[in-house]
Amino acid sequence: MKQASTRVIAICSDAIGETAEAVAMATLRQFELANTEIKRIMNVRHEDEITRLMEDVAERGGLVIYTIVQPELREAIKEESIRLNVRTVDIMGPMMQAVIDTFNDTPKRLPGLLHRLDEDYFRRIEAVEFAVNNDDGKDVGAILKADIILLGVSRVSKTPLSIFLAHKGKKVVNYPVVPELTPPAQLREVTNGKIFGLTIDAEQLVKIRSERLKSLGLPLEAHYASLERVQAELKYAHSLFETLGCPVIDVTDKAIEETAGLIMQYF
Where does ADP bind (predicted)? Predict the structure, then answer.
């Protein structure tokens, strides 16, 4: 088997492959794998597509993660994995079989049911648009329309967390906490349980901000990334969180999914 310089993890799905990719990304965070590409192959319908995919992965020395509901396509992957000596991981198969065995039921075997165009789908799309339009405090009036309000100093992952929660169907506003900026009065009108304060270890935030300055070509010694400034901002943020009586989540070393999971527990 020929080893390529860039290793590949192929996501094979008869829908869009989002579930398998999420599992792959969560797993890869546990490793330091350089030059590893995640390649998503969606809407697979024919066995020849699987053959081409498996041969490509075999050539590159990778593995295949799949979410396939059609029995003939699942069998094709198994046969090709044996023929080409390619490791595969079936994400849905064991769970589907467990449900069949436990509840004596038969699956619909229809691809893409998770993303069908139903009311829930359009609610998520609306939530994503809401999060984008109200990122970083663009419209303080939206605070009273939101399901979740995220507060935190700069670079504590407010924006990606907002988008992730929006994909769960929650309308999210995130607002920057800055000592020189008076918090909007609308925050005091929000129903309890909607506001969440985000905090982080000061030294880690210094590193994050320094990397941000570096990416922008700005001097690393800027006041924005100094430990003194960061500590002052975090202290001010905590005083605001205490005043509002909102839950505080420490995002230090947490993945976006983990922080979102903590927030969703409140709902």
Answer: 152-159
Helix boundaries (H) for 41-182? 47-60, 71-84, 93-103, 119-133, 158-166
Query: 162 a known binding residue?
Result: no
Per the annotation, does 138 bind a ligand? Answer: no
pLDDT of residue 80: 95
Residue 36 annotated as binding site: no
List of E strands, the chain = 7-13, 36-41, 63-67, 87-90, 148-152, 172-176, 195-199, 248-250
Element (H, E) at 206: helix 202-215
- What's the pTM value of the predicted model, to 2 decimals? 0.63
Sheet with 148-152: list strands edge to edge.
Answer: 172-176, 148-152, 195-199, 248-250
Q: CB under 8 Å to 207, separation ≥6 — which residues?
A: none
Judge whether 210 is annotated as a binding position.
no
**Is 152 labelled as part of a ligand binding site?**
yes
For residue 83, say whether it is annotated as part of any ligand binding site: no
Q: Say which amino acid occupies 151.
A: L
Query: Over the stretch 243-255, which tens digit does the pLDDT of each residue have?
Result: 999 999 999 999 8
- Cα(65)–Cα(88) distance, rounded to whole angstroms? 6
The 3-state DSSP class for residue 104 equals coil
Whether residue 156 is annotated as binding a ligand: the answer is yes
